[in-house]
Design a protein that fits this description.
By secondary structure, the protein is of the alpha+beta class. The chain has 3 domains: 166 residues, PAS domain (Beta-Lactamase, 2-Layer Sandwich); 88 residues, Helix Hairpins; 145 residues, Heat Shock Protein 90, CATH 3.30.565.10. Helices cover 55% and strands 16% of the residues. The protein is built from 10 helices and 12 strands. A 5-stranded antiparallel sheet has the order 2-1-5-4-3. It has a 5-stranded mixed sheet with strand order 7-9-10-12-11. Strands 6-8 form a two-stranded antiparallel sheet. A hairpin with a 5-residue loop joins strand 3 and strand 4. The two termini are 53 Å apart.
Length: 479
């Protein structure tokens, strides 16, 4: 809920806030433009009315300028005014007071600013906008009249009401507010639906991620769309599947390693108790027990060393001491270690030694470790009367070691994962599941390749390719 509230709050401040500000700005601009247009229209109407009174003004100027004559002419001028329903006409004295008005009511004696402006203007016209005594908003324009010697002797004022214009402005403003409200409502509804379509799956993803973090690796998210949210659902589901698989592999590894360690420890404990019970006089039993204990200790040491090497590999602390290595010699030593074992298990071990192989740049102990691991797997997964063939070849710039067997093979489903850490295709055989992963990493550190080709019930072929050492290597001796 905190996430939803946060997203909604940011959306309101960012999206709705911006839209509201734009509506206010543009609405205000439209209202100001609308008001300016109609006020200018009213001003133009008053100016046109003053322009049309020209002939009458000439008559006033050419006539007597006495108050009586001015009053008579003013009354005659107001009486002949035809647009009394639309405008108000006033005739002013020289000091700006109203002499007569077309409205017929007692005129306002106060001097308005438009007459003062008219006296100061070059075109003798003055404009004023304000409120009359009744509180009605009006616009007035006055023309100051001058006699032949340049002195102002009267003025003519036209007044129009702005009430209708103001009402139209308010109607227009209300319309803008209504449209703006409708726009905001529409944006809020559509955006709220859109935000909900994002927040809801995000909440589901968050809940599923929590379940995965708590160990429920079978938790999955239902994919409802094919957009970025749908892709995120796929990614989370894929991640959960990978974590579940990794957890299963880890558990299998722990179980396998526990079994691998328990078997020699059980043998050591059993023979130790047997030797103690038989006493020092049974020399044959003691010697046999010591032989078994020594063999199982070596087996334990091998398992522990393999685990330590894997730990160093994972932490990036595996040290390699590079030198010019005779691959045939290291491979031959590995073959010698397994020849007697192969004979005991009824396997034919064939090693085809080349006459000459170019040296490679590598760590002899690590390369021998790889060869031992691969040959051990070939024997371990071969049936009695099977055949294991080991041969090498100079591939011009590379040395190739091929170790093949006629064993149980690897299924197509297991083959892509066989070099992954902890992975075991055949769980019935002993092993930790890290030997091939370690061997592959060692060969990779030698800038080589370890490739596995296998067919179930036919056999497996492991091909190791290593680059030939240059004539004079200047590479560091330790990596």
């Amino acid at each position: 809920m905190e996430r939803k509230a946060s997203i909604m709050r940011r959306w309101v401040f960012n999206s709705i806030g911006i839209i509201f500000a734009l509506l206010v700005v543009f609405g205000t601009a439209f209202v100001i433009s609308f008001r300016s247009y109609y006020y200018k229209s009213a001003e133009y109407s008053l100016s046109s009315r003053i322009d049309s009174v020209g002939p009458i003004l000439d008559q006033l100027i050419s006539s007597s300028t006495t108050n009586l004559n001015l009053g008579s002419l003013a009354i005659e001028l107001v009486q002949n005014f035809e647009d009394k329903e639309k405008l108000e006409m006033q005739v002013l004295s020289s000091n700006g007071e109203v002499i007569v008005s077309s409205m017929g009511f007692a005129p306002d004696k106060s001097v308005k600013p438009d007459y003062t402006k008219a006296l100061q203007a070059d075109d003798f016209r003055g404009l004023w906008t304000g409120k009359n005594k009744a509180g009605e908003r009006i616009m007035s324009m006055t023309l100051a009249l001058h006699n032949s010697d340049g002195a102002a002797f009267c003025g003519i004022r036209y007044i129009t009401s702005l009430a209708q214009i103001d009402r139209q402005i308010w109607v227009f403003l209300g319309l803008i507010v209504l449209i703006g409200t409708a726009i905001l409502f529409f944006v809020m509804m559509s955006s709220s639906y859109f935000i909900s379509s994002i927040v809801r799956p995000v909440s589901e993803i968050n809940q599923a991620a929590r379940q995965i973090a708590l160990g429920d690796y079978d938790s999955r998210i239902e994919k409802k769309t094919n957009d970025e949210i749908g892709q995120l659902c796929d990614t989370i589901n894929y991640m959960a599947g990978e974590i579940s698989a990794a957890e299963k592999v880890k558990n299998d590894f722990i179980s396998s390693v526990s079994h691998e360690l328990r078997t020699p420890l059980t043998a050591i404990k059993g023979w130790a108790e047997t030797i103690r019970e038989s006493g020092p006089k049974d020399v044959e039993m003691t010697e046999k027990g010591i032989e078994v204990i020594t063999s199982e200790v070596e087996r334990l040491t091998s398992i522990v060393e393999e685990l330590l090497d894997f730990s160093r590999m994972q932490g990036g602390h595996m040290v390699m001491k590079f030198e010019r290595v005779d691959v045939s010699a290291e491979l031959g030593e590995a073959v010698v270690l397994f020849r007697s074992r192969a004979m005991r298990e009824g396997l034919e071990l064939i090693y085809i030694e080349p006459e000459v192989l170019p040296p490679v740049l590598g760590d002899p102990d690590r390369l021998k470790q790889v060869f031992i691991n691969v040959v051990d797997n070939a024997i371990k997964y071969s049936n009695r009367d099977g055949r294991i063939r080991i041969e090498t070849a100079d591939m011009v710039g590379h040395v190739q070691i091929v170790i093949s067997d006629t064993g149980v093979g690897i299924s197509k489903q297991d083959l892509p994962n066989i070099k992954k850490r902890f992975y075991k295709a055949n769980k019935s055989q002993p092993g930790s599941g890290i030997g091939l992963a370690l061997a592959d990493e060692i060969i990779r550190r030698h800038k080589g390749r370890l490739e596995i080709d296998s067919e179930e019930a036919v056999g497996t072929t492991v091909t190791i390719t290593l680059p030939v050492a240059p004539p004079e290597s200047r590479m560091p001796s330790v990596l």
